Amino acid sequence: MGLLFSDTLRKLRIEKNFSQQELADKMFVARSTVARWESGSRLPDATRISRLSEVLEVDLNLLLSAAAQSDECPNIILVDDRKLILTGGLPIIEQVFPHAMVMGFTQASEAIEFAKSNRVALAFLDIELRNANGLDLCRTLLRIYPRTNVVFLTAYSDYAFDAWSSGASGFMLKPITPQGIREQLSNLRYPFWTGGEPD
Fold first, then answer.
1. CA distance 86 to 145
2. Helices 46-56/60-69 angle, 10° precision
3. Phi and psi of 154, rounded to 5°?
4. In whole angstroms, what is the distance from residue 176 CA to residue 154 CA?
5. Which of 95-109, 111-125, 160-174, 180-194 has the least mean pLDDT?
6. How confident is the model at residue 2 (pLDDT cuts 50, 70, 90)?
7. Which residue has the higher pLDDT, 32 or 190?
8. What domains are defined for the chain?
């Protein structure tokens, strides 16, 4: 896999001897937007990538390739010990995040192994897992990659307080719905690219 888009952009900017502010001025965006692109929390849309290629005087395909191969294309996981929830929930998550890699797990241990070798941008976790606890799984995932956003899923609203104390970004009552997922996006601690929307 090639360099992350963020690393590629930072390298090209430095080679041109531009500050983040100078690049922002040439791109007609705020300096904070460039900072987000370079931190990996946002990815510019195709129009802005094209403009970046002109400003930085590099081949457009170089930037498009970096974006396509980037780890910033999010990994999203759903962990629930009931296969019925996975069967119903995974297509809904894929509908909301068409550019993401979406994986489902029935075992906390499987999710942990996946997270060790793949940066997880967003994890939907059942609180009550067979032979495991979703709150503990949340803490483990955050130790592996602190920028993982965790949204707890449960049928019981009385778990909300415990969920918030674990470092999670959000809390959803089952069943999983597109609207319910979209409502959680504004609560994410670490927003990530969800398909090239303008910043």
1. 23
2. 130
3. -160, 160
4. 10
5. 160-174
6. very low
7. 32
8. 5-69 (1.10.260.40), 75-185 (3.40.50.2300)
Q: Which two tokens stand for residue 79?
A: 């962990």
CB atoms within 10 A of CB 32: 13
In the block, residue with structure tokens 């089952």: 174
- pLDDT tens digits for range 54-87: 999 999 888 877 776 655 568 899 999 998 999 8
3 state SS of 5: helix
Residue pair 90/32 in contact by the 8 Å Cβ criterion: no
Is 123 strand, coil or helix?
strand
Beta strands in the chain (DSSP E): 75-79, 101-105, 120-126, 128-129, 132-133, 149-154, 170-173
